[in-house]
Amino acid sequence: MFFRSLIFLFWMCWSSLALALAPITIQDIRVEGAQRIEPGTIFSYLPLKVGDTITTEKASAALKALYDTGFFSDVRLESDGNVLVVYVQERPSIARLEINGAKSFTKDQLKDALKTIGIAESRIYDKSLLDKAEKELKRQYLGKGKYSTQVSTTVTPLPRNRVALAFNIVEGEAAHIREINIVGAHAFSAKELQDQLQLNTPNWLSWYTKNDQYSKQKLSGDLEALRSYYQDRGYLEFAVDSTQVSISPDKQDVYISVNITEGQPYRVSDVKLAGQFLVPEAELRKLLTLKPGDLFSREKVTTSTKAIADRLAKDGYSFANINANPEIDKEHHTAAFTFVIDPGRRVYVRRVNIYGNTTTRDEVIRREIRQMEGAWYSVEKVNRSKERIDRLGFFSEVTVDSPPVPGTTDQVDVNFTVAERQTGSIQLGAGYSNAEGIILSAGITQSNLFGSGNSLSFGVSTGLVTRTYSVAYTNPYWTEEGIARTISLYDRSIDTSYLIGVSPYSTRTLGADVTYTIPVSEVNAYSLGYGFEATSVGVFNTSPAEYVDFVNQFGSQAKAIKVSMGYTHDTRDSIIYPMKGWSQKYGVEVGVPGENLTYYRATASEQVLTPVSQNTTLSLSGQLGYANGYGGVPLPFYKNFFAGGVGSVRGYFPGSLGPQVYDNYGNLLNLGGNKMITGSAEYFFPLPGSKGTDKSFRLSTFVDTGNVYGYNQGFSIPQLRYSAGVALSWYSPMGPLEFSYAAPFHYNSVTDNIERLQFQLGNTF
């Protein structure tokens, strides 16, 4: 009754305003009271024009139209003779919007949230929206686990009918998860189950992962992870019955309870195929990972379904529908599965679209794409395209989807979405030993120069022993066929006289190289290069006889014309965070006749990555090297191989392994050698507590081995050096960082130079 009376009074007031206006034929329209809004804008909303005759209905409609704009707090219509006078009182506009006290969000993030509900600078101020704005800001903080956040608003009038809004935020402390209780679990321990969850109680890594802060989205993901864990282990009838989330009175602690029903484990009694195959049944059966007698596994069902769909999509049937229909025998706890295949229509690609690249040019990405427009859609080619884009190293994330084209049944678009990362970096390296002290190196690299995909790097490395200046420029598509060209210039100086235990000599090498890389398939490439080096060689009174004899025979100025050849095979899934694949690199460098140095230097390296679980992988790698002189010229001693340190055999001082001689004072000096062998077995796993959510951090345990051998030595297994330890790898904004702590074993405590703790930041030049 109250609301009816209120509506009646409102209608009476509105009608009285209209009825107070005597019927006239409008000869002119005048606007009074407007300050910011132009009269022309008001006329555009007014459903009256010169020549119209005012009636009660038209006046009411005009008032309603002007009120509906939201620009005015009061509107009146009056007449001055035959002139219609429109009196308006404008709502104030928001001249300034301030947010005070925000720490968990940037001010721009919160302003964007306010804009979605109609509050932003230059917009009309609506007092009724303030309460909604405060709730929206609190909602943003709820997602951060800050349930005690307080928001107050200050409205300050300003000249020319404007206001300044200030939202004052007291964030308070974030609530932390104190307990996660899974009720009804019997088959697995609480720790096993909680290890599957992203949400967790506070631990030493919570400051970084924030996984101890409740999030509804994270909880939904955790429930699905829990369901997958059970159903991948046979529990076909597993169900999440309910969840309860409670907050302590002081809003600082969160308690989560999950009620589950496990059911019984089921085994697979039979696996059948049905439907329209289009591919020989025998070939499809090979794709099934679910076998009779196995424990039921949802993962195997999904993998089998996807494998069949991918096989059909390879022939253009990208909309194939494969359903795994179970026949459940509850009495014997078995299930028979029939994979029903409906290939659907054959599909081709209308357009290939690229989104998210603001710096990288479209052509840089498109030349890596193997799925062509107008061709049959191929999952294999789309996935290969995604891998090639990811391997560029320009993007932190690459995703792809293939939505159907509206209004068609046989066309899709392929959309690649990339998230660009910083491709320019400052690279630093540092190490320390009792012999050399601190070694520093630095470099600046732009691997995506002006978004062209070309790479330009400048490097400098300096320490007591080495000093290197280098410049390298790479064009990965020097030709349209994908032949890459790299031009490099370098100035490298070495003076080992500062080191204790290393053969003293000095060199300064000025060089230039041009290398061409010729791809022959998606994963294989050959390289061909040539270059020139001019080296000034110096020896000291304490230098070993081998070094002195070389300088006396060939002089202190050495020149070499180099020709190099190589082969690479690389199927790794990522350059930055590889989890699987195989990398092979073979190369030979030859100093050809024409200058006074003739030599050859061959190297081979391999790495195999095998996933052990979803977030862990085993890496096996090895390197071989062999070098010598020819044409009556020995191998220059500064072309020797050296081993030890990060990237070689950790736990030993860099370059310290290999043949040694005594100087005139009875000190052991390292010579290097013409033969090298190193190997490593390394198991990578995520940081404890991170559960693999951040791939840029990885821990590993490793065993390294290797040594360097001289001209009169053969490869000798008993002389190999070993070490075992742990390492932390982090792809930081300044480049890759690696810390390692190694415990050497099977080493010579008298002659070997041990360095257990080592680290390197960035790729040194």
Automatic annotation (TrEMBL):
Localization in the cell: Cell outer membrane; Membrane
Keyword flag Repeat: yes
Gene that this sequence comes from: bamA
Role of this protein: Part of the outer membrane protein assembly complex, which is involved in assembly and insertion of beta-barrel proteins into the outer membrane.
Signal peptide positions (record): 1-20
Gene3D superfamilies reported for this sequence: membrane protein fhac, membrane protein fhac: a member of the omp85/tpsb transporter family
Organism superkingdom: Bacteria
Any Gene Ontology CC annotation: cell outer membrane
Cited InterPro entries: Bac_surfAg_D15, BamA/TamA_POTRA, D15-like, OM_assembly_BamA, POTRA
Protein name per Swiss-Prot or TrEMBL: Outer membrane protein assembly factor BamA
Keywords, alphabetical: Cell outer membrane, Membrane, Repeat, Signal, Transmembrane, Transmembrane beta strand
NCBIfam families: OM_YaeT (TIGR03303)
Biological processes per GO annotation: Gram-negative-bacterium-type cell outer membrane assembly; protein insertion into membrane
